[in-house]
DNA sequence: AAGTCGGGGAC
DNA sequence: GTCCCAGACTT
């Protein structure tokens, strides 16, 4: 570590003093900040807001109170408790990491940033968060909050997603982080970014480091950090099939382990231009009768729009193939199993429950 | 360096 | 509608 000038020391001191009086102190993962609890929270909070995470976190910790419980659980159940939260690779990695912790570290966390960052789903910042918040290790973090605060305070130009800009921010983050009370300081920086130095309205009058803030001085709070370069999202289309058997159970298929909704259960999808009964016969080995279309809707991902059409079908017979490789199941929407479901699928199954015999819906 | 991976709240 | 959120991983 390098020497701290008085000004630099004053930065952490001001942030810590502000945190003691105005920081958040009662988030669910702060009450008993063990490495396990901090770890789960940090993974859930990747690219996800605190308010969204809290109910998921409570359910997850109740079902999986420790590493051993998580490692022993079936992946389907982990994905079930993750359904709706997004970025499902996080859940798969969490499950794998728990099993590695059991196998290689007797269920405990390793104590070096390199070892922690070697676990699936844990990068540099998350590793530093776990070790500083749970064990007080003097490691700097650089999440979206800290990026925004530092980019404004130091007047750093460029989009933080660019590696060169990110490198500058890491250097600055390490230079400013105090060696004592690092966990509290990291929490304080996140609170500062989440409650004062927000994206659209920086509350500089209440900020403890406004006096020497570059963006504040130049009035460029709105311009820093620079936004991601614009890109237009392509539009894809699909048709989801709600095939019901005599017991009003719906056919689900398991998605491949990687890619969109990896490892989740979803509805069969047929191309929008295909003949539906013919497609069901040749691809699923099922004879079906059409029962009408549901209202279409758009689902937007990070990198494309998906326009989803949905059609309801009644099973009229089986041509004799399929249904024995574990990739399919008949799902009762009224007695849900502990499975991971993509949000549009949950939405369609819910509409089925609320409308057991719908009329044809027009857009 | 760029692309992949969700969903929803804020605007 | 757009933008981004307590990012990591793959190519």
What's this model, at a glance?
With 363 residues, the chain is of the alpha+beta class. 43% of the residues lie in helices and 14% in strands.
Structure explained in plain terms:
The strands form two sheets. This protein has a four-stranded mixed β-sheet with strand order 4-1-6-5, sandwiched between helices. Strands 3-2-7 form a three-stranded antiparallel β-sheet, with no helix packed on it. The chain is built from 14 helices and seven strands. The chain starts with 5 loop residues before the first helix and ends in a 9-residue tail after the last helix. It has helices spanning 6-22, 35-44, 50-63, 67-72, 75-82, 89-105, 113-117, 124-135, 144-154, 163-176, 182-196, 214-218, 276-284, 343-354; strands at 235-244, 250-254, 265-266, 269-270, 286-300, 305-318, 328-331. By secondary structure, the protein is an alpha+beta fold. Helix 2 (35-44) crosses helix 3 (50-63). The longest helix is centred in the first third of the chain and has 17 residues, at 6-22. It has two domains: 6-218, Hypothetical protein, domain 2 (Endonuclease III, domain 1, Orthogonal Bundle), CATH 1.10.340; 235-354, Nucleoside Triphosphate Pyrophosphohydrolase, CATH 3.90.79. It binds a DNA duplex (11 and 11 nucleotides) through helix 2, helix 3, helix 6, helix 8 and helix 9.
Number of E-state strands? 7
Largest sheet: 4 strands, mixed
In the CATH hierarchy, what is the superfamily of the largest domain? Hypothetical protein, domain 2
- The radius of gyration over CA amounts to 25 Å
Number of helices: 14
């Amino acid at each position: 570590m390098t020497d701290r000038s008085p000004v630099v020391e004053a930065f952490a001191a001001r942030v810590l003093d502000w945190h003691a009086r105005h920081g958040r102190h009662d988030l669910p993962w702060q009450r008993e900040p063990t490495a396990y609890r901090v770890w789960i929270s940090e993974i859930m909070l990747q690219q996800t807001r605190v308010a969204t995470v809290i109910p998921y976190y409570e359910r997850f910790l109740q079902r999986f109170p420790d590493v051993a419980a998580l490692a022993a659980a079936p992946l389907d159940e982990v994905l079930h408790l993750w359904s709706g939260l997004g970025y499902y690779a996080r859940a798969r990695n969490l499950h794998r990491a728990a099993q590695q912790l059991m196998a290689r570290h007797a269920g405990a966390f390793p104590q070096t940033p390199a070892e922690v960052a070697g676990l699936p789903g844990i990068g540099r910042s998350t590793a530093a968060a776990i070790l500083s918040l749970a064990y007080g290790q003097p490691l700097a973090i650089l999440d979206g909050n800290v990026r925004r605060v530092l980019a404004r305070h130091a007047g750093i130009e460029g989009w933080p997603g660019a590696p060169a800009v990110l490198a500058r921010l890491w250097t600055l983050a390490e230079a400013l982080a105090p060696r004592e009370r690092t966990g509290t300081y990291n929490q304080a920086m996140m609170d500062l970014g989440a409650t004062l130095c927000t994206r659209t309205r920086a509350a500089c009058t209440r900020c403890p480091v406004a006096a020497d803030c570059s963006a504040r001085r130049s009035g460029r709070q709105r311009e820093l950090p620079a936004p991601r370069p614009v890109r237009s999202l392509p539009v894809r289309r699909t048709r989801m099939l709600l095939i019901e058997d005599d017991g009003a159970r719906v056919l689900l298929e398991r998605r491949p382990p990687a890619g969109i909704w990896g490892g989740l259960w979803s509805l069969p999808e047929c191309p929008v231009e295909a003949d539906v009964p013919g497609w069901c016969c040749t691809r699923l080995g099922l004879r079906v009768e059409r029962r009408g279309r549901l209202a279409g809707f758009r689902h937007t991902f990070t990198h494309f729009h998906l326009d989803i059409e949905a059609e309801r079908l009644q099973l009229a017979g089986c041509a004799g193939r399929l249904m024995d490789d574990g990739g399919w199941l008949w799902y009762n929407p009224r007695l849900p199993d502990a499975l991971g479901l993509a949000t549009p699928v949950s939405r369609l199954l819910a509409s089925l429950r609320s409308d057991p015999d719908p009329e044809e819906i027009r857009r």
